[in-house]
Design goal:
Strand content: under 5%
Helix content: over 70%
Radius of gyration: 13 Å
Shape: elongated
Number of helices: 4
Number of strands: 0
Order of helices and strands: HHHH
Structural class: mainly alpha
């Protein structure tokens, strides 16, 4: 999660939105990976694959994103 947050910060996104976005990305990727794995040893590779392939459309359709107002 911290790597995702750091990547968003490096792209110039505000700290609050970076933190929320990093957790939203990780949660959405986790849900995708959960549906693809067949046992406890296959979750980690499925999670890495989901993190690699996630895009904005997937995040919008499967993620629970809410507007943040500072």
């Amino acid at each position: 999660v911290t790597a995702l947050i750091g990547a968003l910060l490096a792209a110039g996104v505000s700290p609050l939105v970076s933190a929320a976005g990093g957790f939203a990305l990780f949660r959405t990727a986790s849900l995708i990976a959960q549906g693809q794995c067949s046992g406890p040893g296959t979750f980690r590779p499925a999670l890495l694959d989901a993190l690699y392939s996630i895009d904005g459309d997937t995040l919008e359709s499967k993620g629970e994103i809410y507007e943040i107002r500072p």
